[in-house]
Amino acid sequence: MSDYLISRIFPADQRAQRQLDALLHAEGIRKDANLDYTCGMFDDDYHLIATGSCFGNTLRCMAVSSAHQGEGLMNEIVGHLTEIQFARGNTHLFLYTKCESAKFFSSLGFYEIARIPGQIVFMENRRTGFADYIKKLEKDSFSAAGSASAGASEHTADGRLSAHPRTAALVMNANPFTLGHQYLAERAAAENDLLHLFIVSEDASLVPFAVRKKLVLDGTAHLNHVICHESGPYIISSATFPSYFQKDEAAVNESHARLDLAVFTRIAQALGITRRYVGEEPTSQVTGIYNRIMCENLPKNGIECTVIPRKQQDGSAISASTVRQAVKDGDWELLSRLVPETTLRYFQSPEAEPVIRKIRGERSVIHY
């Protein structure tokens, strides 16, 4: 244990922020845009020699000055951040690290979930965390498929549901659920025997997860053989994926896609998924990169990638951004042409008033 003290670095502390930027830069790390707590370890002359940050339930932007490496300071930074997280009620923690540092974090009780060789490793502090998540998916899938497809699917002699020859997946944020999302789900459900629909559960959207989940469930209730899952912390959202290991935004987006697909492939193998559906995103550079990498890499793992052209309204592709703008503008006539009746009823109900206020309070609701 060192004699150095660890203290919080506040955004208004300009001197410490300058030292923070310099330390991260020296260690080849960019300051992440998404941080909600940052700490620093200072020497007797108040020079920053080690740092680490949190965002949600992740640890990130951890670095030790090259002049002090080998002194065990990173252990203390991780210990401090873990205490902060536990005090917040976050006991299931995640981190992203360079491949060469993964062994070190393993010694601190973190376990590998997936990696991009030569780039980044995704880790958690529960030895069976990801395995338990997959077991829950399998259990939920068996229960839902058994009840929803009674009479429509064959069963084995011991009563278990037989394997579906065509099993697909769809991942959506649905911020909020639109006619475009519904069309994509209907298309995937019609072309397969079973559809696993994963709803991104990270609460980083203008429409809260609880509402997004309700709108997805209500908007797909008429479809048979659809099993909805919460993504949990494993299907990685763009808000929680770190940017501090990559040189530019294009590299960030590509690494995010590759790591997310590495995780998804393991899920797909467990659930027998052989096809993933995605909506075409002609206006989004980020989604365009993601779709390209998906189409290139999923087939290598025996998973077909099916890109569906976007559903259009009045000659334009329906997007959640357009829906949010209609809500912001109070344009109910436009909204009624872009969302299912279930979504429209929600936004016209008193229950939606806090969400509407939040959307209208945003300067911009168009996300690219």
Description:
By secondary structure, this protein is of the alpha/beta class. The protein has three domains: 5-91, Aminopeptidase; 96-127, no CATH class; 136-152 and 161-361, Rossmann fold, CATH 3.40.50.620. Helix content is 40%, strand content 19%. It has helices at residues 14-26, 73-88, 102-107, 129-148, 179-190, 209-219, 249-271, 285-297, 320-329, 332-338, 341-347, 353-361; strands at residues 5-8, 37-42, 48-55, 58-64, 94-97, 111-116, 120-124, 167-172, 194-199, 226-230, 275-279, 304-308, 312-313, 316-317. The strands form three sheets. A seven-stranded mixed sheet has the order 1-2-3-4-5-7-6, with helices on both faces. A five-stranded parallel sheet has the order 10-9-8-11-12, sandwiched between helices. A two-stranded antiparallel sheet has the order 13-14. Strand 8, helix 5 (179-190) and strand 9 form a beta-alpha-beta unit. Helix 7 (249-271) packs across helix 8 (285-297), helix 9 (320-329) runs antiparallel to helix 10 (332-338) and helix 9 (320-329) crosses helix 12. Mean pLDDT is 88; it is low at 148-162.
